[in-house]
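REQUEST ID: PR-0412
SUBMITTED BY: lab tech R.K.
PRIORITY: routine
TASK: structure prediction, single protein chain
INPUT:
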Amino acid sequence: MPTRPTRPNASDSSQAQALRAAPQKEVLTVSQLNRRARMTIEQRFSQIWVSGELSSFARPGSGHWYFTLKDNDAQVRCAMFANANRRARLQPSNGQQVLLRGRVSLYEGRGEFQVIVEHMEPAGEGALRAAFEALKRQLDAEGLFETQRKRALPELPRKVAVVTSPTGAALRDVLSVWQRRFPGLEVIVVPTLVQGAEAEAEILKALGRAEALAPDLILLTRGGGSMEDLWVFNAESITRALAAIEIPVVSAIGHEIDVAMTDFVADLRAPTPSAAAEVIVPDGEELAQWFDGQQRRLLSATSARLREQRLSAEKLALRLISPEHYCQQASQRLDDLNARLMRLQQSNQLQSHDRLREMANRLALQSPRRLLDGLAASLAEKNIQLRRTIRRRLEDHQQHLGATARMLESVSPLPTLSRGYAVLRSKSGSVVSQVTALELDQDLQGQLQDGSFSAKVTEIKPRDTLNRDGAADATQEPS
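STATUS: complete
OUTPUT:
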């Protein structure tokens, strides 16, 4: 059963009007809300450092790392993508204390607050790194890292002092390179500890002993290790001692990715001990080849100098000849020049004759006689053609005239008149050919073969009357 529509009351109408008058509110979808939240968070927290404990670590087949970073009171979801975690220098595991650098974001699909990790290191390294950066800024402000302070290494050192551990792999690598590249180098090993509590004092003493030996160059080196193992080479005392040495110093600490404070203050930083050994000395074979080349160039220059001196001596000897010999040579030279002059004149004459003959031929080709002869021949030919054309035109006109005469003769009344006929004309000159055009007493002009005459019509007989009269006369003709 249909319901009766209710009638709106006054209060409902006023509410509807209020809603229409109020401004429209923006209604977001969940996706739009999460997207705006993500953009706001990323703009506010572009990059952060945060430390905590790893938990719920997962490594799916994509190579990305997903984990939770927590402390005693809170936790946050984290994601470290494959292109970033490849550079990580640790193998993460649950319960490990780490220091992270990254940016805060929001995973829109689930509306989860998360940190996109770009760098991860053990939490202990963070304090060391902060101390490293602080000391680096201090020494840089003092000018210890300026390029103007750095000295060039000797191109061919003869004695090198190596400050390192006598049992370390770095020394073996350096000596192996020098034995192969430059076996004549004098190497003095100044032994010292390279890590541990006593290493700082040992390295300071070793640097002093190395400088006292007055070598051409000092190499401070050790092999790779953790940041804690290499930390002694970030000591302020060692850095300042290295900057005070008057002898060029090369620093080669750890592997290529390791950076120590001594690398900044040394005159040259090498990425590895082996690379430092190759930079310090030249390649013996290349040097021998260079010496051989220099020797060849010296011999070539000496030979050229001797030839030059010999030619100079010969020229001086020529200046000592007698005047008679000099006159003989001058006379011979004059005869030679005279012969060359005669040959040149003959050649010029032949060329002139050839040019004159060529000009004459060209002039003959351009002479007006040939043009006139051609025009005369053309005129004669045109005259013959004109005569032929006139003759042909006359013949055509004669033929046309004969044909016209024959046509006129065929239509002329004279032959008809010669057979006894006459041509009658009225006074107006029109030819009278029928009796119906005649009238009684009409004057006519007659034309015969040999003259004309005048006549008057006295009787008109049409052809029918003439036939009847002729027939009657025939019937009445006597037998």
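NOTES: The radius of gyration is 68 Å.
REVIEWED BY: pending
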